[in-house]
Amino acid sequence: MNASRAAVYVHVPWCLQRCPYCDFATEAIAPARIPHEAYARAVLTELELRARALAAPLEPISLFFGGGTPSLWSHDALGAVIAAVSRFGPLGEVTVECNPTSIDRDRASSLRDRGVTRLSLGIQSLRDVHLRYLGRLHDAAGGLKAVREAIAAGGLRVSADVMFGMAEQRRDELVDDVRALVNEGVEHLSCYALTIEQGTRFGELARKGRLPRLPDDDVAALYEGIERTMGDLGFVHYEVSNYARPGRGSEHNLSYWRGEAYLGLGAGAVGCVPTEGGAARRWRNAHDVPGYLASLERAELPAGELEDLDADTRVREGLMLGMRTDEGCDLRAWARRTGTDPRASRAARIARQVERGNVIDEGDVLRIPQARWLVADDIVASVF
Ligand code: SF4
């Protein structure tokens, strides 16, 4: 019998405090107010409903708890979700995003004992001045301690998020930070340039001209600094923003970038599964926790937005995600999935980008050379 392969994502929509640059679906909450058990019951019910609606039995690829700050959720709740998803099939990778303020050796061990295999730590920087600029709750010493304790717990793969482009950030500082994280034993690094989003505190300050910013050329120099350092350290740059020891890339994220289905569960979660005729349906649950809990209490799917994607839209999104990786976009896989030849209406545009050295055409696979990854979004848009 066929199976519906899908990565499973659980959104945990709370943080101790909102960071001024963040536009994720999350709200600040005092830990005592988190409805641990009610949210776990709701997520388990949503899992059952979403799995039942699939065309074939769910075959989970991986499980990822993101947010928000999933490490604020009770470990019994996380464990119950891991056990429930595992009943559909073995999980290759189970990741929990953690903030340094909510992880230590005991908590890391407790997560591992419940089936977690990987922690993704929101370190952002190892400089107090930059952490203060970002409005983070932890300091540099706290970030380093979190990494050490997560690794000391044993049996967990540890990834760190690093942000760059903060005002007055220097390349040597950033390079030293990423070296320090790798020396501690981090095997995966996600590096994001600070972006200013509308609707955030930083967005408001930037609009009023009151947010100190780093010039774009300096941001590009920081990116090159990371790129060179991670290469020297033996890491593979396997996606525009991600580096890993060989073979240690995130299975969960790779499955997104390869265009696999994903089941998003929880308030504010997004999911997308194939439907008929090469199309797919995407849902975005409303970010309204009381409404989410009430719907699932009635065993009804939560309110939110639904979007039907036709085959061509799926192919475009597949190019967008796949071409940002070192393995590239697998055109044959997309043709199989959607019944649409991704080249059909794009041959001339692809050829033009190949001529300019922006795209490598390997027949079944299209890739962007890594030297052009800084402008990958523009290149992919020109292939659309
Ligand atoms: S901790 Fe992470 S998810 Fe929460 S507000 Fe800060 S950046 Fe956003």
Q: Can you tell me about this structure?
A:
- With 384 residues, this protein is α/β, with parallel strands linked by helices.
- It has helices at 36-52, 75-86, 105-113, 128-133, 140-152, 171-184, 201-207, 216-232, 251-257, 289-297, 311-322, 331-338, 347-355, 376-383, and strands at residues 4-12, 14-15, 27-28, 58-67, 94-98, 118-124, 157-164, 188-193, 236-239, 242-244, 261-265, 270-274, 280-285, 304-309, 329-330, 360-361, 365-367.
- The chain has 14 helices and 17 strands.
- Strands 9-10-8-7-6-5-4-1-11 form a 9-stranded mixed sheet, sandwiched between helices. It has a 3-stranded antiparallel sheet with strand order 12-13-14.
- α1 runs parallel beside α2.
- Residues 15, 18-19, 22, 24, 26, 67-69, 99, 122 line the site of iron/sulfur cluster (SF4).
Task: Based on the model shown, name its key terms.
binds iron/sulfur cluster; 9-stranded mixed sheet; 2 domains; 3-stranded antiparallel sheet; TIM Barrel; 384 residues; alpha/beta; 39% helix
